[in-house]
Amino acid sequence: MKKLRFILFMCLILTITPYYSVQASSNLRIKMNGSVVKYEGTQAKAAFDGKGIDVSNTPGIIVNGIALFPYDVVFKNGLGIKCQYNTFTKVLTMKKNENTVKLTMGSSIAYVNGTKKTLSVSPRKVYFYHSKKTKLMVPSRFVTEALGYTYNWNASKSLAEIRTPYALYYDKTWHTYTGTKGSVKINGASINVSDMPTVVMKNIAFVQAKKVFGYKELDATYQYNSKSKTITIRNDDLVVEFTLDSTTAYVNGKRCTLKVAPKIMKDNVTKKSAIMVPAKFTAETLGYGYVWNSSKKISEIAVIRKKEWSLALEKTNHSSACTNTLQSIDLIDEKGVESIRFVGKSDLSIETEFSKKHNTITLSIANLNNIDTKLSKKLTNSNNLKQLKISECETGNLTITMSLSEDATYYEEKSGNRYCIYFCNSEVEVDDNTILLQKPEGVSYSDIMDTDCYYNKQFKITIPGDQVSYYNNISLSSLPEGITSVKCSLNSSGNTVLTFHTTKVLGYKLFDNGDTFGITVGRPSEIYDSIVLLDAGHGGVDPGCVSNGQQEKNINYNIIYKYARTYFNGKNSKVKAYWTRTTDKKIELSDRAAYSEKVEADVFISLHMNSAGSSAANGTETYYTLTNNKPNSYGLTSKMVANYFQSNWSSQLGLSTTRGVKTANYVVTKQNTVPAILIELGFMTSTKDISILGSSENQKKAAKTFYQTVCNLFEEYPTGR
Questions:
Q1: Smallest Cα–Cα separation from 167: which of 52, 58, 269, 84?
Q2: Residue ranges making up the domain that contains 249
Q3: Per-residue pLDDT tens for 34-61?
Q4: pLDDT in tens, 474-503
Q5: Shared domain check, 690 and 599
Q6: Which helix (H) or strand (E) holds 413?
């Protein structure tokens, strides 16, 4: 009886002992790299968010210090990663949210979001004799981190600990979020926003609307109408109204445009939803002071009032026929909102004029009997006003000219004898993906130019004059992830060039910030709303069709790159364009298709010219591939893109469209990862078509209308970013 009890006790112990506890090295017979191996190393275990993954039948193995695990057991089933294995090419594709990893069995070369990586240990097939199973074993840390998860090797337990990356749910999908997670203070008191921290999107800090602006110390009220999706926040003097997912807001009934729309967000940790609004805009609009503490990642909101400058204008001419008096001009910082206020004895008769060229506001005030009011005042304490000039008031008309800072925006309000100009200038909240650089004296934001050299993994910023000593010591520690170095040099025109070297293709955007300018860096899809990859067919030793003294490669190149880049690279372009070739060079077809992933393109368009044995053949044909025609995240398919261009572009050039849309298995459309089309714009063997497409003037027209068609496509089918 005692023996039976002992056996039962031991069974219980074995049952409750965690299966990922340390297992001593034991013999494991496997077949790897074509050889039968007696594996005597550690049999590794795996856990996801603290819960063990059962790998007992096919345990992880350690090769040169790297833990390899079966992809299907750990990543596909354990983590829910979307996986696909091509038995012919031996390529394993793994996708999670916006991240894609491609591994080739037996190869040390891998691709992460299209960027080439070298592995220290290659993935491989392993046969486990004891369970009679063949598994594709992949390097666990590399795959885990490439897909955005966190990884820790617990040596004492021989355990790979994988944890879910922080993610936000908005716009009907999950987004991996690696940016700032901040907090909030109001009048120095911390607000508990742990269930949904402050997040930064496009350099704007977003906070919980209800918890923050409904806080009692602010004396404001918060309301949300779920039917109209409107958020209303008001205090004694001001009302701001937002609509979810809309960049239009109203302040005391006056329309304003936001950089980023308010959203309902939920994270994957607390799984609690909150309405998030732009912190600085909301705080300052309601008249509160706002500071972004970048070192501590805190949105600091306060109730403050400060008069920065005041001018009393009491002296009057009693013999004048004019009846009104301008009594005072006050520059006020009230609760963080700067304004300039003009007060008259009675209702003020004011006309205003804004000069964009000189960035000035001119006020003309009539019927004043003030005298000796001439004044020129530099306002060094103001963020928005640089100088104020007042003319002499001799005939009852007073002219006031105010010089504004570069990034100042304002709105006007008139009430009886008071006229106010409120400034909405805002300093951006800078996250870890942003670089802020000082502007040299005399350099304005409009003088600063940029060039995207993505094909060399670089982008360049050009600043007028010799500023090399000014920028020569940019701290590498302050650079966003993905930037490896910055080189400062002088070009042949005597201007300063900052060359940012990157590990992969990165998107970037410049913005003005008063005395500084900023560069926000990130994955292309994080920076740009719409991305197109353009492919000029043929190139280099491959001329394409040669007819009527013209080479196809040159016409393709001229239209889609030489002339079209002027529009796509313009400062007001709505679409970011990348090109598979920017020189007369032959690019392999498979490389052209693969580039879509590298630049995170939304659409791929390849331009070609046609040819035929008969000169009668003419007109445009547009091709797509049936096997690459699934809707993308916003519902666009290759066929839809093909129909759109066939109907909307070539007809503007006088080319026939009756040949229509067709299907074909071209490499650039078949092997692509996004909606992809190939346009045969016209026949080089057709006298009619080549007369249109052969001249530089018509090629320029084709480039302009092509750009407009691409923009119209994305307007009709927005990406939602």
A1: 269
A2: 173-302
A3: 899 999 999 999 999 899 999 999 999 9
A4: 655 567 878 888 899 999 999 999 999 999
A5: yes
A6: strand 410-415
